TrEMBL record:
Residues 3-117 form the DUF3597 domain. It comes from the Bacteria. Residues 16-36 are annotated as: Disordered. InterPro entries: DUF3597 (IPR022016). It comes from Aurantiacibacter atlanticus. This is DUF3597 domain-containing protein.
Amino acid sequence: MGIFSSIKNAIFGDDKEEKAAAAPKPATSGFNRTSTSAISEVDVEARLDGMHDADKLNWRESIVDLMKLVGLDPSYSNRQELANELGDSDYSGKAEENIWLHKQVMKKLAAAGGRVPQSLKD
């Protein structure tokens, strides 16, 4: 499992929970349908705000603090691995790169079904 998957699972729940939520539900009405129940969006901001120490960390702007909040080691090597996963193979740990990395994580969380405020993606 990659670093992004670890971040996503810490916020959304692990893949087993997602698969169970996505499993087709039997129809309870008189209609004969085979559709699945829609998975509701995960409110990323609320989930992160609800985590222990969220008020002590600047997770809204800092990739290091975001990683700390979800229980991951924010070391340079882990941030470099995350950057590689998200398309930056030349990550060197500069402030601008960390800002980019944070925004990419937020965008990818949104693409995975999370509700992320626009201010965290821009």
